[in-house]
Write the structure tokens for this entry.
Amino acid sequence: MASEANVLACKTILASSVAKVYTEEIRKGIAELGRRPKLVGFLANKDPAAKMYATWTGKTCEETGITFELREVDKEDLEDHIFQANGDNDVDGIMIYFPVFGNRQDQYLQQVVSTEKDVEGLTHRYIQNLYHNVRYLDDKNLKKSVLPCTPLALVKILEYLGVYNMLLPYGNRLYGKTVTIINRSEIVGRPLAALLANDGAVVYSVDIDGIQKFTRGEGIRLRSHKVTDVEATVEEVSKVSDVIITGVPSESYKFPTDYIKDGAVCVNFSTAKNFDPSVKSKASLYVPSVGKVTVTMLMRNLLRLINNRQQ
């Protein structure tokens, strides 16, 4: 009976509920702009998941009032196509569906996109700002820096769930929270750990090579986070975590339910289901996927880029 009661106590939150809050904000921004912004997506691989994501992005953009154009190109010609889009005044934003080459060449392609059109927030200026906890592009604090879409989506989900303490000053609202992230990719896991640590959390970042601790130090005295290797197990760090975030791209991987602290918040951003149904016997809030919020943040970033160019 206790197990049944715990399952009933856990609430599943769908990404669509979170996305809806920001979709209205985006529609209002487009109305104030007075025209349909244009986003171009480049697809240079044969990954069916990437094609599905592109189709989904296009549908969501069109429904919201954004013109989306998917350009399917050969990967050897992609760089030239990006340069062309960089110089096209009719194009407001550019995104690339990765992986393209699946190696360091992909990191190079991220830097080919113009900073003024980088809706994914992956160019060097934005990534540098993220890691150094710099939130604006100018001294007058008028132009906001752009954050990578999936890490930003996860931040907005945690805000929606009330994990962020809105009574604390902006930038410190995760003070007192401990988070474990099962993923340390350069696209999502590492920048997410930095974002949450910069907001005051103690973050344990887990990958196959070990565990790293991201923190702004005792009493969050540091301006930006520091990273240290820790000698601990996934079980040890998870059992003290208020939030567990998973992003393992494997259908066979399941996060052990007995590692979850009673009442923790559990969020999965992988396309695979990293938690099995028993997660509801331990978690208080469970978010099984984040895709719809990620696409919404993509559109939000597009408007931010346009606004920055107008300042």
